[in-house]
Amino acid sequence: MRVALAQTDCRLGDVDGNLTSTEQLIKESAAQDADLVVFPELSLTGYALGQLAEDISLWPDDPRLAELAKHGPDVVIGLLEDGRIRRHNSALYLSDGEMVHNHRKLYLPNYLIWEERKHASPGQTMRAFDTRHGRFATLICNDAWQPMLPWLAAQDGAEVLVVPTNSAAKLTGGSFDPAEYWHDLLVFTARMQQCWVIFVNRVGDEAGVRFWGGSRVIDPWGSVVATAPTWEESLTLVDIDLTAVRRRRREIPLLADARLGLLRRELERLINESGPD
């Protein structure tokens, strides 16, 4: 399976322009025999939604989105979803002109410069899903920082975790380096869930924030097999073998002894002690 990492710099609020550049990259990927093209979080709308005076959210069944998946490769695309009453930070998996899966970001950060709860509502489900290439799950940016979500995806059979992201460079004068944290997190996730991890981050400057890129693919042993450059737009192609997931999970069956009943009992206890949400 050949994956194209579309590390882009979208234009805030310019949905039409972003759709045009997105389609061009999909066509370029198709010309290089890509089976899947992955774009960053909110790649059609931009991240700093509070800077916009108008609503730029899109319906998931917008025909312009379906057109993106008619050039050959499957597509993972990020957008602000119009959910009628609520808006969602969503990533759609599109294939052959149809939507296969819609993941709504579950954990919306509300600290430092991040104010996602002002502009979107959290999703309510975490599901793996079948594609023509294998079984996938999507985790949008901060979702991947919640340890239980990659585990849940793997328990649901996911062989590939797709992680569209808007990760900025250092936000404070302290020692926190997002690029270093992401590297360690992605390697750990791939090793412990014994799956492929496809991380696609954006680049460019938006509303005083600079995004660093560094998109990459990690194999089920935790080895980084492809890395995109930092700070610049790029289209990086990498071949992955999904049978490696089954080999790795057979070698060391970390996921087989989940003890879901035990977890349910302990979760119910914690819910009863602390409240339902």
From TrEMBL:
One BP term from GO: putrescine biosynthetic process from arginine
Superkingdom, natural source: Bacteria
Domain CN hydrolase: 1-242
PANTHER family in UniProt: BETA-UREIDOPROPIONASE (PTHR43674:SF2), NITRILASE C965.09-RELATED (PTHR43674)
SUPFAM superfamilies with a match to the protein in the record: Carbon-nitrogen hydrolase
UniProt key word Hydrolase: yes
GO molecular function, one term: N-carbamoylputrescine amidase activity
Annotated keywords: Hydrolase
Originating species: Amycolatopsis albispora
Protein name: Amidohydrolase
